[in-house]
Amino acid sequence: MDERDLIKQAQKGNQQALSELLQKHYPFLKSYLLKITVNPYLAEDLTQETLIKAIEKITWYDGRAAFSSWLITIGSRLYIDFLRKKDTEKRWTEKEKAISKMKWAAGNLNRDWPEFLEVLLTLSDEYRIPLILKHYYGYTYAEIADILHIREGTVKSRVHHASNQLRKEWLDDEQTSG
């Protein structure tokens, strides 16, 4: 069965089709959430929560966007909700960031961004998420705006700001290490 058939069957209550569909997208979803959270444990929790939401809401999927985009939307919103809940307390201490970086590097969780991770961590979530969606996953500004429930102009501004900040940090790092 192709993906559209799996979705139709899952929406009709076929548990096997739903299972196949979610298993197919699990690695992609977890990889995305790992990039935006930079925390393997949180990424795993959010991946599981996203899959649960997808199971609960599979009949709401309308096919306007790719199924993977629908999952990214759910996962992004869950992460944003998580951040809102934690907003009154400091999310990460410097020690936790260092531990997370070491675990990331030790586990080779994302081999395609090795040196860039440290610089990427300098960005706040509101800038890092749109940047990753745009430049790593190739979503359009309009799609990102839809995923994050913000205006397209805001997405463009955040991606531009994040890109400039990364360039600045990257150049500063190269000058101090060189």
TrEMBL record:
Q: Which GO terms describe its molecular function?
A: DNA binding; sigma factor activity
Q: Which Pfam families match?
A: Sigma70_r2 (PF04542), Sigma70_r4_2 (PF08281)
Q: Taxonomically, which superkingdom? A: Bacteria
Q: Which GO terms describe its biological process?
A: DNA-templated transcription initiation; response to stress
Xref: SUPFAM superfamilies: Sigma2 domain of RNA polymerase sigma factors (SSF88946), Sigma3 and sigma4 domains of RNA polymerase sigma factors (SSF88659)
Boundaries of every RNA polymerase sigma factor 70 region 4 type domain copy: 116-163
State the UniProt keywords alphabetically: DNA-binding, Sigma factor, Transcription, Transcription regulation
RNA polymerase sigma-70 region domain location: 21-87
The entry sums up its family as follows: Belongs to the sigma-70 factor family. ECF subfamily.
NCBIfam families for the chain: PRK09638.1 (NF007216), sigma70-ECF (TIGR02937)
Q: What is this protein called?
A: RNA polymerase sigma factor
Species this chain originates from: Brevibacillus reuszeri
Gene name tied to this protein? sigY
